[in-house]
Write the structure tokens for this entry.
Amino acid sequence: MNQATTTIGQANPTAIIFFLAFVSLTLGITYWAARRTKTTSEFFAAGGGVSAVQNGFALAGDFMSAASFLGIAGLVALSGFDGLIYSVGWLVGWPVVTFLIAEPLRNLGKYTFADVVAYRLKQTPVRLAAAVGTLTVVSFYLIAQMVGAGNLIRMMFGLSYEAAVLIVGGVMILYVLFGGMIATTWVQIVKAVLLLAGASALALMVLARFSYNPLLLFQEAVKQYGPETLAPGKLVSNPLETISLGLALMFGTAGLPHILMRFYTVPDAKAARGSVFYATGLIGYFYLVTFILGFGASVIVGRGTITQVDKGGNMAATLLAEAVGGTPFLGFISAVAFATILAVVAGLTLSGAAALSHDLWTHVVRKGQSPEHEQLRVARLSSLGLGLLAIVLGLLFKGQNVAFMVGLAFAIAASGNFPALLLSMAWKGFTTRGAVVSMLTGTLSAVVLIILSPTVQVEMLGRPEALFPLKNPGLVTMPLAFLVGWVVSILSPEPEAAGRFAEVRHRMHMGKEEDAVAPAAPAAPVVPATPHN
């Protein structure tokens, strides 16, 4: 296959039909969900009524972004075995979420991870610092998704970049603004099913050319590109760079606000653990499939053709779909990739809206005294504002290399969110000042060191060398956030916070009082425990 035979860049009727069908289905879901979204709890957490299996699929749908589908397949196609470093790093983060985060988060919080950090600390400074980290992660993630959407639709549907960004932003605003978490959850479930089905079908069509034997596929890759295509070290050869990237990917997963928010949608901690179990299985399977897609693209399409169409290799999976299934299958895979971006952007927007409405407005501005109708109105206005911001950012960053922004989002999540979250649950001596300094130090140091890194200084600005040698700052910024949180807490003890640690430990393991109440005879209403200011 060569570039002359591809229809990428031209309007694809099949892709447009599948895209319109997906949008129609999801707008129908949004209409159904809007009639069931009357409270803040339903808007942000689907009323806690999502089952473990449903939340597992939604978690997978929220996490498997276009970077996972298009990016990893492209990395494997161009770099061979080393392309798996991102998928392995992301996947290894899920056991961390399972054993350290899921159950305590569900038992201690309400809508955001700041609920957990602020549970026994002073509300205002902690929530302000947490909101800075959350909105920074969400902003950089949104840029990457919106620019990715614009480029994808420009190449797949023959539309202009600006039209694609407006379509993604407009449809996503409808999902979140009217349907809230109920609509977003079902959009993510539908997207996960479509993505898993599409990737599986594509992998089977590739393996059919090699007698359904992956070893024959790998042998062909070795024949075409040499044995180094199955050896590590081509993409990341510096050991410190490898460790730094691994830390950011693994612990960043446990600090992403839109992922953490999903644990509040289930009825109890057992369902939270179960949903991570299902999500891990689905995501692990998906990454195994992308391995087949990457090698299939390198062998069937060819690395030369892949880089001609897109220098970064992001069109490898779509080129492969066209090569093995023709233009109609290319259209289906293109529409699935577009659905992937829509679902992830909706989840990101909702988590940003929760930080603005729940953390900043309700607890900082209104000191926890905001009535229900006001909270819901502010939540919807926040969603609208973030949706418009996503469109503006997508238009502003047109043509930019945004790959580093995904790495930055994970580095910030691992440095700004995860240390404070873990210390607040595990250390009695953790204080308000320690939490604030840890979150701000992790967030700001990650941003500064990325700006000083080779990714920005050398690759983007064309300078001969960078002030900071590592492309990903996780190796420096994550330990730094832990260190400053520990030192500042030691220097500024907070007896009241330490005194409530036993209450935190009990609730972490036993759950909320309302979760533990058995459906027996009518009794006096249970008053849930509320954090002290």
User: Anything to note?
Assistant: Residues 516-533 have pLDDT under 50 and may be disordered.
